[in-house]
Amino acid sequence: MDFELHSQDNGQRNFQYSFYPGSGKSQYDLNLAMSVLSKETAEELAARVCHYHNIPCFVKADISVKLREFKEKERINYEDCHGMSMIDWIREHPEMIGKVSKCVADKYEHSWMQHSKPTSTNLKDFSQSYHYLIHSSAMMILLELEKKYQQVITRMMKNRRYLMNNLQEKQQMEMSRVCEHVGFAYTQEDVLQITARHVDEMERLESQCRENYQKISGDQRTKFRQAVTRLADEMRQGGDEFTPDSAAYANIKQLIEEAEENLRQNPHQQLFGATTDSNGSDTSRGDDVISPTSSRVGSSPSGSLGGAGGSDGMVYMEESFTVNLGNQLKTMHNLRLLVTDTLNYCRYADVREMEAQRFQTVMSLYSDSLSAVVLFTDNQLDYSIGIEQELANICRSTNEFHFDSLSTQLEQVKQSVREMKKSTNQQKNDGSSDE
């Protein structure tokens, strides 16, 4: 709109700072062009400026404080001036009041929950709508949307692993170089400072990746559940017929196109912008191929007992049995015993297997024929190391539209166990007091 382009101020300001780098040295003047509208914190900006201009580290704290005060003051001034210019523009163009109010109302509707339109996205309505659609002609379009969302999440987790490994390798190389020169080039305090900086960089990267994952996965979950409920309502109103020219179908196609556009974008540039490695080559190139951490081993021939190893070197053994039970009327049961990695049932070997497995899963998801994998862990219920960490990585590599996340479910289990133990202890205490 025209009123959005009325103000010529883009928020750029000039930050000035002066300091003495040491006794007997001349004053150092810093002039920094910055945007007061940037979301970058003053601490991060100060760290970048000090690193780029080789400013002593003892000045960084004071620069951070000055930057924060300057940015907050200039941001308030910018908002005041921008608001007054908008008011003056409205006074000069009173015919645009209706258009402006509609734009503001739309922004409130899409930004604040209390102003948004009510949508039926509770579990009961969603589960019924999904079960209804998955047994109709709309099944393929839903599976296609799930597949695209799956690729986005898998690509994001692959990018996270790449960034974490790349940062760890750089930190290991730097620490090895520092340890080799301790005593004459570096002191023990320098080693401690570098170690603290490495921890801070790793935590910052994990936080950025976690926030980006939560944002995209939560947005996918909300849009998918709303699209399913809306499409089911239109099909019920249309006599259980699926029409490709309906508004709900167009909405799902738009979501698929958005997911494809996300896959075409650079995953590294979405978080940090284009970066280069130590050789000067561009490391922001992404890979759209879905490649799980380990391939699922295929089934060996029926009735054979083999020692064929999978790609991960694990021994794969299988044996099939046929058991007949009963005296007069016999019933036959087929048993299949496997010795393999339990988590292979949670992975996909390739895209074709993923599509077939998801098709089988969605057909029986809201039915009486459910399947499960029992994974034995210790009593800590943690997923930071070992097989629990592998399970957590597999769960994070896919999108969850029907149930709570793994961390939420584990927290609910822990809370239930604590309440049960508290209730049991209370009953024991009451029984002891009665005696």
What do these coordinates show?
By secondary structure, the protein is mainly alpha-helical. The strands form two sheets. It has a two-stranded antiparallel sheet with strand order 1-2. It has a two-stranded antiparallel sheet with strand order 3-4. Helix 4 packs across helix 6 (188-237), helix 5 (139-180) runs parallel beside helix 7 (247-264) and helix 6 packs antiparallel against helix 7. It has helices at 42-53, 60-92, 97-111, 123-134, 139-180, 188-237, 247-264, 267-272, 351-363, 386-396, 406-434, and strands at 12-19, 28-35, 317-325, 331-339. It is built from eleven helices and four strands.
Describe the structure concisely for a colleague.
The chain has helices at 42-53, 60-92, 97-111, 123-134, 139-180, 188-237, 247-264, 267-272, 351-363, 386-396, 406-434, and strands at 12-19, 28-35, 317-325, 331-339.
Tally of contiguous helical segments: 11
Q: Give start-end ranges of low-pLDDT stretches.
A: 1-5, 119-123, 273-311
For the largest beta-sheet, the strand count, sense and barrel status come to: 2 strands, antiparallel
- Reading the helices and strands in chain order gives EEHHHHHHHHEEHHH
Radius of gyration: 30 Å
Morphology: extended
Order of strands side by side in the largest beta sheet?
1-2
Q: How helical, in percent, are the residues?
A: 55-70%
Keywords:
single chain, 435 residues, mainly alpha, two-stranded antiparallel sheet, two-stranded antiparallel ribbon, extended
SSE layout:
Layout lengths: L11 E8 L8 E8 L6 H12 L6 H33 L4 H15 L11 H12 L4 H42 L7 H50 L9 H18 L2 H6 L44 E9 L5 E9 L11 H13 L22 H11 L9 H29 L1
Antiparallel strand pairs: 1-2, 3-4
Helix pairs in contact: 1-2, 4-6, 5-6, 5-7, 6-7
